[in-house]
Design a protein that fits this description.
Strand content of chain B: under 5%
Oligomer: heterodimer
Radius of gyration of chain B: 24 Å
Largest sheet of chain A: 2 strands, antiparallel
Number of strands of chain A: 4
Strand order of the largest sheet of chain B: 1-2
Strand content of chain A: under 5%
Order of helices and strands of chain B: HHEHHHHHHHEHHHHHHH
Number of strands of chain B: 2
Shape of chain A: extended
CATH topology of chain B: Cytochrome Bc1 Complex, Chain C
Strand order of the largest sheet of chain A: 1-2
CATH class of the largest domain in chain A: Mainly Alpha
Low-confidence stretches of chain B: none
Largest sheet of chain B: 2 strands, antiparallel
Mean pLDDT of chain B: 94
Largest interface: A-B, 50 and 52 residues
Order of helices and strands of chain A: HHHEEHHEEHH
Helix content of chain B: 55-70%
Structural class of chain B: mainly alpha
CATH superfamily of chain B: Cytochrome Bc1 Complex, Chain C
Distance between the termini of chain A: 76 Å
Number of helices of chain A: 7
Distance between the termini of chain B: 45 Å
CATH class of chain B: Mainly Alpha
Chain lengths: 258, 409
């Protein structure tokens, strides 16, 4: 009963404060996967994986994605095997009943940085770094929001806002105060393909990678969608012809009668 | 040929079956022998599409249930597993999720059509009431189903709505505990919701057959609202309306496919892709779009019990509509005042839906309360009054006469 009262009072209060939490609307960007037939830019997604690996994955999990899924953004089987082997996966129990660590396989899920949610919160002053496997689907604004958030930090908050110690000002984040340290600093990642790793470039790449991680079925879905729309439109047209062949004689009969 | 007289079939197996179970002649009679007014518009195909959607939902639902795990620790992850690792799992789930929205869209078209053309009036009151029962079961099924993915909106929506039961005096808390299997939404509730969500569509399926039975007893209403009198007014259902329904279904599927393949999260809330967290309340708790008008009515009354009663009443009032609207004339075509009222009512429902999506603050509260008041004024005051004083205009002698006068077939 106490819990019920607690829930209801918290509900009422959220209805009242919600308007204060309005965040800045992220500007629209031109993504390779935006339009109806768009696909993920493979090079950007692969660079984005590197940003995730070297920066984000320190705190953020990607627990719905398996290493072998990376083949879908153009990594070869051998590359995926090498990527998976970089990780230590906790497995077991073995025949002696002990848990043990082994190198990752392509069929393993991405290893999470913390054992569980509590451990993640404990390591981050009580803030939980959210799992990123659905991040562009789970936020209004999707990829635009993510990019705006990653590039939208401001050194000093506008007058009238008192920053809580340990928080950073980011107008795109609901409430404006985010616990995440500005993550993308010039030179934190070195790209192998020669692309200059500016903060904006890294934000663009990692957003492309995470948009893929959120909707890995997107390209197949759109390809299938085109086929089905063509088929169904043709089917509807045939249905129209059939319907007309039955109904037209009726109206002709009536006009003749007149 | 001893049993020839009543057995019109040639094929030996069909003859054999017909003698033991006359199912083929039953179906044939229901299709070819069913005389339907010849002037049904495209709105009359909404019933057939709704039945089609029920079947789509049951089939995709059974496929999803083969992979879904109804437990708070696994529900969200099992849905993601369907999306990423089950063959065409994303297609099955998007069919089911978008299917729910389009099912409601079609059913609302079906209901507003009945309101406009007076299809709820004598002799179709029972048909209408069965339809309303189907609608109630459908709402329950949709609500239960939305809880299953165990996202933030699933959890908090379930918490807000089930908490309404505590508004019932004296026994409210006990009812809540009985419904949820605990004093809060958790593992027992999720398991129960899954079981009920699986069961209720089959109840709907049964009710649909009773609905069709009642329909076939007096036949379809039509855009003029005048009952057909002669053979000139009607056509056999098959082939004329089977081909028309088929065309409508095909057109509908193009729209359905567009949403599934190109905008599969159009009707959804981003928040529901965040796993349920009892410690974090979302800033805005909103139900799916098809519940928004009722949600607005719920919130319009500042008192919890009052809001609950208002929301239930807004649906129950539809059950007695055949006795609130006493006009003998069915179709709005011949009822100028009622027609105007109908469109104001549609506008009122749209306003309620819009308010339901907004936070309960500022002007929205006032607008929601006025719109709620008007909802009940429409049914309880305006409809009975107008049906008593309104003079029908241009009512023709028969269905066919109406179209002859208008100069078309």
């Amino acid at each position: 009963m106490i819990q019920v009262i607690f829930i209801l009072t918290s509900l009422l209060s959220t209805f009242q404060v919600s308007s204060l939490e309005e965040a800045k609307v992220p500007p629209k960007r031109d993504w390779s996967f935006n339009h109806m037939l768009g696909t993920f830019d493979r090079a950007a997604a692969q660079r984005g994986y590197k940003v995730y690996r070297q920066v984000c994955s320190t705190c953020h999990s990607l627990r719905h994605v398996r290493y072998r899924h990376l083949e879908k953004i153009g990594f070869s089987k051998a590359e995926v095997k090498a990527i998976a082997a970089e990780y230590q996966v906790r497995d077991g129990p073995n025949d002696e009943g002990e848990m043990f660590d082994r190198p990752g396989n392509p069929s393993d899920r991405f290893v999470t940085p913390y054992k569980n949610k509590k451990a993640a919160e404990a390591a981050n002053d009580g803030s939980y770094p959210p799992d990123l496997s659905l991040i562009t689907k789970a936020r209004a604004g999707g990829a635009d929001y993510l990019y705006a958030l990653l590039t939208g930090y401001q050194e000093s908050p506008p007058a009238g806002i008192d920053l809580v110690p340990g928080k950073y000002y980011n107008p795109y984040f609901p409430g404006g105060q985010i616990a995440m340290v500005p993550p993308l600093i010039e030179g934190v990642v070195l790209y192998e393909d020669g692309t200059l790793a500016t903060p904006n470039q890294m934000a663009h790449d990692v957003t492309t990678f995470l948009a893929w991680a959120s909707e890995p079925e997107l390209e197949e879905r759109r390809r299938l969608g085109v086929q089905w729309l063509i088929f169904l439109t043709a089917f509807a047209f045939i249905c129209y012809l059939v319907k007309r062949s039955y109904w037209r004689p009726l109206s002709q009969k009536v006009t003749k009668k007149k | 040929m001893s049993d020839g007289g009543s057995n019109p079939y040639r094929h030996p197996f069909v003859r054999w079956l017909e003698k033991r179970l006359p199912i083929i002649s039953f179906v044939e009679h229901a299709l070819k022998g069913y005389q339907v007014p010849k002037n049904l518009s495209i709105l009359w195909t909404s019933g057939f599409i709704a039945g089609f959607m029920l079947v789509v939902m049951i089939i995709t639902g059974i496929l999803l249930a083969m992979h879904y795990v109804p437990h708070p620790d696994h529900a969200f992850d099992s849905v993601e597993r369907i999306m990423r690792e089950v063959n065409f799992g994303w297609l099955i789930r998007y069919l089911h999720a978008n299917g729910a929205s389009l099912f409601f869209l079609v059913v609302y078209m079906h209901m507003f059509r009945a309101l406009y053309y007076g299809s709820y009036k004598s002799p179709r009151e029972v048909l209408w009431i069965i339809g309303m029962i189907i609608f109630l079961v459908m709402m329950a099924t949709a609500f239960l189903g939305y809880v299953l993915p165990w996202g933030q909106m699933s959890y908090w929506g379930a918490t807000v709505i089930t908490n309404l039961f505590t508004a019932i005096p004296w026994i409210g808390d006990s009812i809540l505990e009985w419904l949820l299997g605990a004093p809060y939404v958790g593992a027992p509730a999720l398991n129960k919701f899954f079981a009920l969500h699986y069961f209720l569509p089959f109840l709907m399926f049964l009710l649909v057959f009773i609905h069709i039975w009642a329909l076939h007893t007096n036949g379809s209403n039509n855009p003029t609202g005048i009952e057909p009198k002669t053979a000139e007014d009607t056509l056999p259902f098959h082939p004329y309306y089977t081909v028309k329904d088929l065309l409508s279904i095909a057109g509908f599927m193009v729209i359905f496919a567009f949403f599934i393949f190109f905008a599969p999260n159009f009707f959804g809330e981003p928040e529901n892709y965040i796993p349920a967290d009892p410690m974090v309340t979302p800033a805005h708790i909103v139900p799916e779009w098809y519940f928004l008008p009722f949600y607005a009515i719920l919130r319009a009354i500042p008192d919890k019990l009052g809001g609950f009663v208002a929301m239930i009443s807004s649906i129950l009032v539809l059950f007695v509509l055949p006795w609130l609207d006493r006009s003998k004339v069915k179709s709005c075509t011949f009822r100028p005042i009622f027609r105007a009222l109908f469109w104001v009512f549609v506008l009122d429902v749209l306003i309620l839906g819009w308010v339901g999506a907004k936070p309960a603050e500022g002007h929205y509260i006032g607008i929601g309360q006025w719109a709620t008041a008007y909802y009940f004024i429409h049914f309880l005051i305006l409809v009975p009054l107008v049906s008593r004083f309104e003079k029908p205009s241009g009512l023709p002698d028969s269905l066919s006469a109406y179209y002859r006068d208008k100069g078309c077939s």
